Amino acid sequence: xxxxxxxxxxxxxxxxxxxxxxxxxxxxxxxxxxxxxxxxxxxxxxxxxxxxxxxxxxxxxxxxxxxxxxxxxxxxxxxxxxxxxxxxxxxxxxxxxxxxxxxxxxxxxxxxxxxxxxxxxxxxxxxxxxxxxxxxxxxxxxxxxxxxxxxxx
Length: 153
Description:
The chain has helices at 13-26, 42-69, 78-85, 94-103, 106-110, 121-132, 137-149, and strands at 7-10, 34-38. By secondary structure, it is mostly helical.
């Protein structure tokens, strides 16, 4: 709970008012990191899109590090690259922090299967994009890459 939780809540204002002390306690700070997104369902919808974006970000990191791994003579220490990117880079993020930890311990990577599960949010996000006619090519491609890793392609 050191970082708190990013909370996206939907519902009637009366319910939000009742739960505000809980949101303030769980969020990174009482005045930020949580949002009343709108009516019932709005919080779930916002979280769904958040997770779709996360799919795209994780896929971009995976592709970039795979590309560098293909030229070890130019980037021999991926953990050092990731650590450098964590400081002042436009691609820094908590996801990169987690990636860095994994890349800095090669033995940890040996036990990681080359499979990425999908929890449903990416599918729901792509389904919503189809319903709206709003293109989400990065999120859709990230979802398809997960399917490929599962042998579903």
